[in-house]
Amino acid sequence: MATIRKRTNSNGIVSYQAQIRLKGYPAATQSFAQLTLAKRWASQTETAILEGRYFKTTESKKHTLADLINRYIETVLIPTKPKSVETQKPQLEWWASEIGYKVLSDVTPSLLAECRDNLLLQNSKRGVLRSPASTVRYMAALSHAFTVAVNEWEWLESNPMKKVKKPKEPRGRVRYMSDDEREKIFNACMESNNEILYTVVLLATSTGMRLGEIMGLSWLDVDLNKGRIVLQETKNGERRTVPLVGRALEAMKKHNKIRRLGSDYIFPGKNGKKPACIRVAWNNALAKAEVDNFHFHDLRHSTASYLAMNGASLAEIADILGHKTLQMVKRYAHLSDSHVAGVLEDMNRKVLGE
To answer: Which of helix, strand or coil describes residue 18?
Structure first.
């Protein structure tokens, strides 16, 4: 319930102090020069308190964006997302350096949109203009921090980043090995001085696993008898089982016979405590094969493309690659056009007649 008291100071100046006391809530007090303003504030604030909005607004005036980012890094990012620290911490620190001094109540969608535009005009670490995709990741990192501040800390009433339009990203890259390129790359890998390169490349092409997933494998993750690999930690945070078949399975069985004792890794580095690094050997193999504009991650695109061209549905491709939604695999849809046409033709023949 609100009460308004008229006060007169030693200089004869009149003011009106509005105070709201509601059971279960801290008292809220504010002074005004006019009675009408005091009554309006009391009415609006009482409603806001009952709806759970008022004290979040108060908190947003106490904390700066830098406070939010520092707390998020220390209590959320580092403890619960350790694999994302290397990339997201610098992204969050960029926001802190730009507008960290602002109190949260002043961090508006228009201010964030201005920062978004600045991101797009700045060079990345590689010395080229930051891409829309990279800018989106900067925005996503801060957006999650805002969400935590809204839901768990009650520092904000809503996430201001949700009202900021993301820059349009280019269509996802679809670069896969042609039959000729695949033969050249595989031959170059087999002839490499690096003893594990061919097995790693074959495994990536056969399963669609990421390089980090492959190099992080331990023998406990692999069941050669049942022909499967269990990825305990993946990019989307979920455990995933990957079938191990054909030449990749045979290569892994062969590699198992020369496994190094004293290391849990399937592909250990020199000291056995960390995975091996194949970057130099891979680049040398590409140069020898004379294949341009091809990255290791394109082996994963190759797997998806081969699946699409051999009749796999987008849902099946997403399941094999470990994507939670179909959005990421829609880029391969055009490769399965002939399969889709065949399915439609078969339905027409069976249902509608020749």
So the answer is: strand
Q: With contact defined as beta carbons under 8 Å apart, do 18 and 29 qualify?
A: yes
Strand order in the sheet with 228-231: 222-223, 228-231, 240-243
**Tally of CB atoms within 10 A around 205:** 21
- Please report, as a single letter, which amino acid is at residue 348: N
80 plus 206 within the same structural domain: no
The model's pTM is 0.58
In what helix (H) or strand (E) does residue 114 lie, and over which residues does it extend?
Answer: helix 109-121
Q: Which residue has the tokens 């590689």?
A: 126
Q: Is residue 96 included in any domain, yes or no?
A: yes
Element (DSSP H or E) covering residue 67: helix 65-72
Number of domains present in the structure of the chain? 3
The answer for residues whose C-beta is within 8 angstroms of residue 155's C-beta and 6 or more apart is 56, 59, 60, 63, 68, 104, 149
pLDDT for 290-305, tens place per residue? 988 888 988 988 888 8
